[in-house]
Amino acid sequence: MTIYLPEVNLNPNSTRKISSWGLAASLFAVLMLSGIAISETHAADKNSPAAAVNVFIGTGGDGHTFPGATRPFGMVQLSPDTQVRHFKQSYPWAAGYRYEDDSILGFSHTHFSGTGHSDLGDVLLMPYSGETKLEPGYPERTYSGYRSRFSHKQEQAEPGYYAVKLLDHDIDVELTASERVGLHRYRFAKNSEAKLIVDLRSSIYDYKTKNLWSNLRVRSNTLVTGMRETRGWAAGRQVYFAMQFSRPFASREIHNREDAVEYRGFAGPGAGAKDKVKIEGKAIVAAFDFGTPDDQTLMVKVAISAVSEEGAIANLSEMKDWDFAAERSKSSQAWNEALSAVSIEAKPEMRTMAYTALYHSMMGPSLFMDIDGRYRGPDNQVHQADGFRFHSTFSLWDTYRALHPLLTLIQPEARNADFIKSLMASQQFSPDGILPVWQFHGLETWCMIGYHAVPVIADAYMKGIKGFDAEAALNAMVKSAEYGPYGGLQHYMKFGYVPTDLEPEAASKTVEYAFDDWTIARMAEKMGKADIAKKFYTRAQYYRNVFDTQTGFIRARKSNGEFRVPFDPTVSNFGSDYTEGSAWQYSWYMPHDNAGLISMLGGDAAATSKIDQVFDAKVDEKVYAHMEDISGLIGHYAHGNEPSHHVAYLYNYFGAPWKTQQRLQQIVDSQYQAKPDGLSGNDDLGQMSAWLAFTSFGFYPVAPGSNEYIIGRPFLDKTVLNLPNGKKFTIRADHLSKANQYVASVMLNGKTLEKNYLTHEQITAGGELIFTMQAQPNKKWGSSKEARPYTQTQYQ
Questions:
Q1: Contacts from 614-618 at CB under 8 Å and sequence distance 24+?
Q2: Domain 595-796 carries which CATH code?
Q3: Other CB atoms within 10 A of residue 337 CB
Q4: What is this structure's pTM?
Q5: Statement: 42-335 belongs to CATH 2.70.98.10
Q6: pLDDT in tens, 376-390
Q7: Taking CA atoms, which of 64, 621, 709, 737 is between 20 and 30 Å from 184?
Q8: SS3 track for 62-85
Q9: How many other C-beta atoms lie within 10 A of the C-beta of residue 432?
Q10: Distance from CA of residue 743 to its chain's centroid?
Q11: How many CB atoms lie within 10 A of CB 165?
């Protein structure tokens, strides 16, 4: 056995390893030299779920994930930033960190995981020694500012923990977090001054267009508070903070760096109530000097609040002590508990990919509520949560497809109920009276299309999630579906489709609205609301109004009923007929009515052939080069973006599940790897990862609200779903190998399973699903009409 030691405070050119026989003595010596306490070695079971996670997957390429410290669904995401998020650079650095970079400008407390849009990065801290520089500087000119170079050889991260050496400052940085508090520990070089930059511009040079206002208040020589209000993705967003130091600072200087504003600096001792100071403006940056600590260490706690500085101070009580080892351990335990919902046996790389996918699926929706239950709603007012924990960061256009169905399966019922109550509370306080579209920090962004909070609620209700008012939820769903001013809905209700001459992205909006309507109908029918069910089952058929049987594509119609011409199924532009896609990607989007699709395409063989064309097409890379989000191409199939995610599973509906198995192998092999650029597109708050999690189990929820999971093929040797109801559902893949990619047969609880899908009830009842794998396709299994999944063709 070989044990690799944490590369913290070690020689940058060394990689230390020792054999197990000398572990005890060597580990003690190294840890004492490095200043790391024995309790912090984290020599936990190497087979634990958290130990299998590689938090750097997705931090390179277009994955847009971050490697820093957070808790499952936590309010704080404490992570390094490697680049300014100027509007011209926003896309590549949407998560603040990019693996390809070699310098860090600081550590901020809020980040998105996997989005295609930049924001957050609140309350940036950067420790340093020597000369005070108030600007971060440029990567190509490291010494021009306070940023520092770093090396991946001296960078370490795991769920709930991040560490790095700042090479230019010779400082070791460690980060961990509770739900609402980020904890920093800095080790400075011997006899070096301990200094700290606090930048409320949060690495944004263009503060004049991003920062509306900010302030910083020195309350004592160990406590600083403040706030930041921005006009970014969510206009008027406010975040408050309280920052506590483990030792008093000796001096400080605080500046407002706005253009045409005299730099108002404050220097001198910072002790005593008489010396309190507050500064306001759009570009606040401060420097604190803590002298030369005998133990070379400075620790900082930063609590954030949705409500006020006093709320942030109260949130500090979530982390009462300065025991970094204990907080790191609590964070690790929280992740192991969350990830233990699934037990995985697989080859090392696949196990890492699967557990990392589960890890990324538990980043959001994120908590956005103070410890006393107060939160900020979409009206930008403060509200009190009653009997639930308010969450925000709902990337619904992405996550309703697989992320939320995954969470209904593996997360506690109370957590899923909290998500739904949060959506309903947002609707209650929405100025428009509708459910969130794309919300973070309580505020609406109006990003993307559809009213996809609806399928999230309907899917949870259909699967028996309790703890929320179903009547109120259905009312909120109907209000959202009938809110005419949003997204051309008034035209959709009038014409039976969204006309392209009256509304952009008309084809995509029509088909996505139709699916959302179907989920309303499903929930209403189960609740005995026959009139609502009939109305929305009818609307669910509106997708047919934009399907052109002559070409076999979804196409946009004008208000006079004519299809837009000329027509090119490869065209994709922002503001065109399709949302982040083309007709090739969107013409499969009627997941609730694939029987209707089969009929319109001319039968099983024609439908199968058409999907084969999607995957097998020879597509010039220039065709989609102008669209950042259309990535991970296999022909016209774009795995890096959500509209394609269900397409490979459609073969099951056409009686050719062996082709689903073939395509899944093709997708997983080409789109996922256990390395920083191992995601082919934005992870989008866990949707890309949830797709891999489901697919690795062996099934996928093509139509949330149907309570059915379409069987693909497993990629893990053994999976145990430790269900919230206390039961276990075990999935075993016999003879699984690279060569054996096809399903020979399937057994459920000892009986042959001929159907090519599973029901939610079958899974939650517990039991065992056994796949027998082979090298050649079994073209008979799951191919009969009786074996196929549910599909709604017409409402009876």
A1: 614/584, 614/588, 614/647, 615/663, 615/666, 617/584
A2: 3.30.2080.10
A3: 12
A4: 0.93
A5: yes
A6: 999 999 999 999 999
A7: 64
A8: CCCCCCCEECCCCCCEEEEECCCC
A9: 15
A10: 31
A11: 23
